[in-house]
Amino acid sequence: MSVQIIADSACDLPDSLIHDYGIDRVSLTVHLDDKDYLDAKTIDSKEVYDAMRAGKAPKTSQVSPQAFKELFESYAKAGQPCVYLAFSSELSGTYQTAVMMKQEVEEEYPDLNLHIVDTHCASLGYGLVVLRAAQLAQENASLEDIMEMAAYHKDHMEHIFTVDDLEYLKRGGRVSKAAAFVGTMLKIKPLLHVEDGKLIPLEKIRGTKKVLSRMVEVMEERADDVSHQTIAISHGDDLERAEQLAALIQEAFQPKDILINPVGSSIGAHSGPGTIALFFLNAPYK
After folding, report:
1. Which strand (E) or helix (H) includes residue 224?
2. What is the pLDDT of residues 109-119, one digit of tens each?
3. What are the domain boundaries of the chain?
């Protein structure tokens, strides 16, 4: 029996890939206008960005314990081996909830064959880890090989991104270390990355055009074996700039493939419109 890959909606993979690779996706919750929505199911990220531009402040919450319990029970009853690759535990309580519900389900189904991995990744950086695991699962790779590959990819996944307004991240408590980046000068763009699952500032850059060029320079400094990689770019309702970055990367590196998709509702509610994020491996592709 092949291994079932489970992810949550913070992976930001397009629905087409979720479907093609048979990934089981559970949703974080988005709270907007006194209503609750399921990320990637009952709300579109464009709705969230438009609401933020209108001055609203959507909030999010982790995947519900009940959703995990029902999902894990269904696979326990089927005797299905599973790997749940989770959104970074430094950015959400979803991983911890999954671990708790696994333990609860195991009390009734001690043979549950479920492995939970904290990817320490977010958005399409997380999505690329999920995608590689799902590709292996579709090739009927062993559970051990999938776990080994997922560990390799999560440990070597770079996240380089910029936001239009750090206030969104500050509001959600996501960038406590980035407070020093908030200045009064116009057109200062923060460049951030993810370190041990946390959002950490790298530098500040003057000018929108310069920040894209600098992202490519950072990729050159950190990336390895790009010609064999699928790299990813996610954006906060700013496809034009995402495509500009993709064109710069294509010219510089000729990667195997470039995946572009919006930052989903659960992460976008914290990063805000105008976010541009770049994801790649800093080690040879496997």
Report:
1. none
2. 999 999 999 99
3. 4-155, 157-281
